[in-house]
């Protein structure tokens, strides 16, 4: 759910959740169905924390699957929208860099659409994983889906030219030009998105970044925090091409542009 996780003030999508859902429609709730399938395959308990829940669409879909869901986000606008439009879960404000929602309060922590990659530094990533460990009951799962840092080793197809998107919302036509660049020193994938509209508003440029995590680096962080890595693969998933279909099992490679991880907190 993209910019909703960064909590950046003055962000067009974060400040207008309805616009976000118009720009990124998910009528089939594919991300939530993939998550539910993953949780069921690994026998996860019912209590789920959707960390970086954005507009609440996935949290509400998991709630309808019979789970007790808490959605957490840094954006107050997103949380207000979630409470009004996607009821069922409890919604709370929390920073993924460090949070405390109760020790052992959840059977699974879910972190979708590259939310984990807003941990730009090692300290932030350590804070995230320490918080997850505190939040999970013994045997609990961490399920995350994100960009794959290793995809950018020698590949430039996502960097060569801006990605252009157009859509209409409430009678206004929106157009975005999104450019990705690799900051090798900071190990970040930086994004500049320029919005233009047909209503006479001046162009708006917005900036964000994701940590470029490599599969074995992620495995090392997880094991250092006491997690057992159960799955680490590039697909199929909710944002891969081709996309995941119900019943498909995870692959064994980590070469694609998305990365999926399932890790378990061992039982003492």
List key phrases describing it.
268 residues, seven-stranded mixed sheet, transferase, single chain, disordered N terminus, alpha/beta, Rossmann fold
Q: Could you explain the architecture of this structure?
A:
This is Methyltransferase domain-containing protein. It holds the Pfam family Methyltransf_25. Keywords: Methyltransferase, Transferase. Residues 48-140 form the Methyltransferase domain. GO terms for molecular function: methyltransferase activity. With 268 residues, this protein is α/β, with parallel strands linked by helices. The protein folds into two domains: 2-149 and 213-264, Vaccinia Virus protein VP39 (Rossmann fold, 3-Layer(aba) Sandwich), CATH 3.40.50.150; 152-209. The chain is built from seven helices and eleven strands. It has a seven-stranded mixed beta sheet, with helices on both faces. Strands 6-7-8-9 form a four-stranded antiparallel beta sheet, with helices on one face. It is globular. Helix 3 packs across helix 4 (57-64). Helices cover 24% and strands 31% of the residues. The two termini are 35 Å apart.
């Amino acid at each position: 759910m993209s910019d909703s996780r960064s909590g950046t003030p003055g962000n067009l999508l974060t400040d207008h959740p309805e616009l976000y859902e118009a720009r990124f429609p998910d009528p089939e709730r594919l991300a939530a169905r993939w998550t539910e399938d993953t949780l069921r395959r690994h026998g996860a308990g019912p209590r789920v924390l959707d960390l970086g829940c954005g507009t609440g669409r996935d949290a509400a879909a998991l709630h309808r699957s019979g789970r007790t869901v808490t959605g957490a986000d840094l954006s107050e606008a997103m949380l207000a929208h979630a409470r009004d439009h996607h009821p069922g879960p409890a919604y709370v404000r929390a920073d993924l860099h460090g949070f405390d929602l109760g020790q052992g309060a959840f059977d699974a922590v879910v972190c979708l659409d590259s939310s984990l990659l807003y941990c730009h530094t090692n300290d932030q990533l350590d804070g995230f994983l320490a918080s997850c460990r505190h939040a999970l009951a013994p045997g609990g799962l961490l399920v995350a889906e994100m960009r794959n840092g290793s995809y950018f080793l020698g590949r430039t197809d996502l960097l060569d030219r801006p990605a252009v998107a157009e859509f209409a919302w409430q009678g206004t036509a929106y157009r975005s030009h999104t450019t990705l660049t690799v900051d090798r020193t900071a190990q970040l994938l930086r994004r500049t998105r320029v919005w233009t509209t047909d209503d006479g508003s001046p162009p708006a440029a917005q900036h964000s970044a994701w940590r470029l995590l490599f599969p074995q680096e992620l495995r090392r962080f997880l094991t250092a925090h006491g997690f057992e890595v159960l799955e680490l693969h590039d697909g199929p998933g909710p944002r891969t091409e081709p996309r995941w279909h119900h019943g498909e099992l995870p692959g064994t490679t980590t070469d694609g542009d998305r990365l999926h991880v399932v890790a378990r907190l061992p039982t003492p």
